[in-house]
Design brief:
The complex is a heterodimer. In chain A, helix 4 crosses helix 14, helix 7 crosses helix 11 and helix 7 crosses helix 12. Chain A folds into two domains: 129 residues, Thiolase/Chalcone synthase (Peroxisomal Thiolase, Chain A, domain 1, 3-Layer(aba) Sandwich); 220 residues, Thiolase/Chalcone synthase (Peroxisomal Thiolase, Chain A, domain 1). Chain A is built from 14 helices and eleven strands. Chain A has a nine-stranded mixed beta sheet, sandwiched between helices. In chain A, strands 5-6 form a two-stranded antiparallel sheet. In chain A, 37% of the residues lie in helices and 17% in strands. By secondary structure, chain A is an alpha/beta fold. Chain B folds into two domains: 48 residues, no CATH class; 72 residues, OB fold (Dihydrolipoamide Acetyltransferase, E2P), CATH 2.40.50. Chain B contains one helix and eight strands, in the order H-E-E-E-E-E-E-E-E. The mean pLDDT of chain B is 96. The chains are: A alpha/beta, B mainly beta. Chains A and B meet through helix 5, helix 6 and strand 5 of A and strand 4, strand 5, strand 6 and strand 8 of B.
Chain lengths: 384, 121
Amino acid sequence: MRRVAVIGVGVTKFGKHDRTSGELFAEAAVDALADAELPPGAVQALYYGNVVGGETEHQLHTGPQAASILGIPTVPTTRFETACASSHAAFRHAVMEIAAGVSDVVLVGGGERVLNVPTAESTEYFAYASDASWEQPLGLTFPGVFALVARAHMAKYGTTEEQMAAVAVKNHKHGTMNPKAQFQKEITLETVMKSPYVADPLKLYDCCPFTDGGAAIVLASEDVARPRRRAVWVLGTAAASDSMLLGDKKDLSRVMATERAAKAAYQQAGKSPSDVNVVELHDCFTIAEIVATEGLGLFEPGAGGIAAERGDTSLGGKVPVNPSGGLKSKGHPIGATGAAQIAEIVTQLRGEAGPRQVDGARTGLTHTLGGNTATVLVSLFGRE
Amino acid sequence: MVTLKSFFEQAREGRLTGIKCGGCGEIAIPPKQFCANCGARAWQSVPLSGEGTLASYTIIRVAPAGHAADAPYAVGVVKLKEGAAIFGRIVDVPFEKLAVGLALRFRPIVVKEQTSVGFAP
């Protein structure tokens, strides 16, 4: 298999936009191509993530639409939908296309628009990623799914609401250093603790926002990437799934798909958790970050909340997590999130992250979770 | 073969139907083709008692558009005494009495011809 590198990244400002998901992706892709110093004609394929286009924009077939807006209407495109992990799944398949020798330059990205519909409506569309026979008719929501994880984690390990709140405070602080973030203001522990419950024990400030945005990355084969000093190498990329139904999951306090994907990615990369200097992971809810840091092997099971409270995951801590502000503060345009996380890690490993730079970062990890914990992707990146 | 349609028709009448693997004895919730535990395809339908304990729960306060009128409401995962676990609405329990380990019993919930799984004390 051939080696693959990221040679260009682009991310829109996250927040509310009056443009379609296709427009947002294309804006990010222009930046990614400029960063890669490649013309649009160099792109041989587009792997694209978009989740609720059918619902919020009455738009299916978003792959060729995004390519058309970008101005590369004839390249092969495929839209990936693995709920919130969609563009990370797209990334993995694009890596395989280059590794297999099919293409030398592939564009990966995603776009999402949800703030054009009311919250109750977007909450319903997101819930389509839970089971339509068993779970949706009972009014399960995504905060509800992670509230069940939180309750199980609290019962098993004694994790507290204050520890979860510490994750929100930390990610908001990181977000103040990211000009692309949806929220760029610090919050206090009290703000989180006094915010209303959305799905007990999760409160409003434990939840990431609804977000419009786009992200893009340019992947290249070793021959194309080698002369580029800012290339960041893909060391490993793995996907794992878990049972769709909540009742079928073996242990609600763990995300088994994270553990499986992490093991495979570390193995591919020849790395272990202690080699990782910087992490962008899927903090759709504060408890999701805590459980992910455990599943990725950064902390022992049950120690994730304590680590967050102690500052181990803050910039300057043992292993900084979500220097971008994470989904919590940077925002979560679901189809674009995986690509945006990769863009942040690439920026960090290039040493170009400005005030939020993790000093001397050589190895980075991205983790993206889809929906009801049934999909997870983990990738590892490094400089030469 | 227990299909979703036949499961919910039975559930509507108050009966929970599981499937038991002839290979390893695993009790699962239908529909499944192969057993995720042992790979066998040798299911037999078995009646489930509907009795179990609460493994985790939450109170949904911000609901999807179609359920806004019901909010707040409790949902949770109940570990049945036969081994399988199932997600359901929890009714007739005051929110402050909800706790991991609470004993509950299956009760069908029927809204506009749609049958769903519920649990009550």
